[in-house]
Amino acid sequence: STTELLNLSLTSDTLLRPFYFWCLDNVIREADGALMEYVGIPARKYIEKYPTEFFKYISSKQFFENKNNWVTAINYSGYYDYESTDNKKEALRNFVTATTKSCFKCTVQQKTEIKSFAKECFSE
Known about the structure:
The protein is mainly α. It is built from eight helices and no strands. The N and C termini lie far apart (32 Å).
């Protein structure tokens, strides 16, 4: 199923994860309203778990053009059950905290990039 495929992007297998990222990116690229409901949480979880990898990919020529679709996916359906879509500040704070926590040896520039991307995703 699509949901299972999207969740495979969270694998700890470093050889397979780039392929599953590519799959997730392509689903996000092609998602319309109905499919967009499925991609927000897997997209958010991937970034929170592998932020350095995500920002490396998304800044590359191959994936950069799809960055806005990632923002849209997270903004549209990237809320966890305990978060309210009415309280985007809470979601923003949770996203930044989780992502920064997973960003080992994060530089100031990377932290700034995380915050900037998060603000795009959870804008009012």
